[in-house]
Write a structure and sequence with these properties.
Chain lengths: ~110, ~120
């Protein structure tokens, strides 16, 4: 099973700041990585797929990069609604797996 | 806009079978364009992929659950279902049904909490 390790576990930032979230895979997954946002009491929602493609309706401040084993989700300028938990997910190897999440909280 | 809605008992006794159904609206399972997926999230924890079923009945299960898991379709009702047998407290979780668009999971149900307890 491909293990995804996300760091940091918690990111404390202020609105307007830049957020950089990391996801590292235990083996190469090409570009088959997605990012999701989850707010309290809600289901996750897709942000980025195939490492760098924004899903429909996702704001341009969200961007993804990386390939192989190292990936990054960047939020260029945090809006109040961006404070949430973010998960990465790989689809290169079975079973599909998720990272443990990064919580972006208000500083 | 596709919508997915989970339904089923919120409380299951240990050793019994957990059964959930997902009703899809705004899309047709028979169209064959997506993988109809179940995931779960243990309270306060991360996400676990359970498995998917394709429109033709082909399934793919998480090996960790495969021996207890069965997914099925009812295309006449545009529904797909999950059955997980011999449940324990470790199966207590929020269960989500979702639409897998060949990798990225682009639509999710709201989730349903299932508690395993006597």
């Amino acid at each position: 099973e491909t293990v995804l390790t996300q760091s940091p576990a918690t990111l404390s930032l202020s609105p307007g700041e830049r957020a950089t979230l990391s996801c590292r895979a235990s083996q190469s997954i090409g570009s088959y990585l997605a990012w999701y946002q989850q707010k309290p009491g809600q289901a996750p929602s897709l942000l980025i797929y195939d490492a760098s493609n924004r899903a429909a309706g996702i704001a341009a401040r969200f961007s993804g990069s990386g390939s192989g084993t190292d990936f990054t989700l960047t939020i260029s300028s945090l809006e109040p609604e961006d404070f949430a938990v973010y998960y990465c997910q790989q689809r290169s190897n079975w079973p599909l797996t998720f990272g443990g999440g990064t919580k972006v909280e208000i500083k | 806009q596709v919508q997915l809605q989970e339904s089923g008992p919120g409380l299951v006794k240990p050793s019994q079978t957990l059964s959930l159904t997902c009703t899809v609206s705004g899309d047709s399972i028979s169209r064959g364009a997506y993988y109809w997926t179940w995931l779960r999230q243990h309270p306060g924890k991360g996400l676990e992929w359970i498995g998917y079923i394709f429109y033709n009945g082909i399934t793919h299960y998480n090996p960790s659950l495969k021996s207890r898991l069965s997914l099925s379709l009812d295309m006449s009702k545009n529904q797909f279902s999950l059955r997980l047998s011999s449940v324990t407290a470790a199966d207590t979780a929020i269960y989500y049904c979702a639409r897998d668009n060949s990798g990225p999971i682009d639509s999710w149900g709201q989730g349903t909490l299932v508690i395993v307890s006597s």
